[in-house]
Amino acid sequence: MYHSLPDELQTLKFLKKWSDRKHFFLPRVNGVNLDILPYEESRLELGSFHIEEPTGDSYANVEDMELMIIPAVAFDRKGNRLGRGKGFYDRLLATAKATKIGVGYEFQLFDSLPAEPHDVAMDMIITQKTVIKM
User: Fold this and answer.
1) pLDDT of 5 above 90
2) pTM higher than 0.70 for the full model?
3) What is the number of alpha carbons within 13 Å of residue 83 lying toward its C-beta?
4) Half-sphere exposure (CA, 13 Å, Cβ side) for 82?
């Protein structure tokens, strides 16, 4: 999961509502990479890029994740995503075996986006109007 920024599909109510019944993990910036840590509302602090991030040292292995919910600036109908340009999620997802679901608003969905060989495509895109399975 991710802790949403003001211009991203909001996840805060979802995290709060379901965190007592589901185990969520959030990314934390570590240099040029993302570490994955358990979500606990009481253990968040403002981190890189003014995003609330989990604290502690209980890291999760991305290869053990079953499902990943990923934000983006834009998605296309082929599963490609356009991030914010730092490559954090592409590096994180490079070894992920999980189902990768990109979530966003309908205006973020395009027919086609440029993709590079290192870009990791989503398995599914969900907006408030559209569900696309690759």
Assistant:
1) no
2) yes
3) 17
4) 13
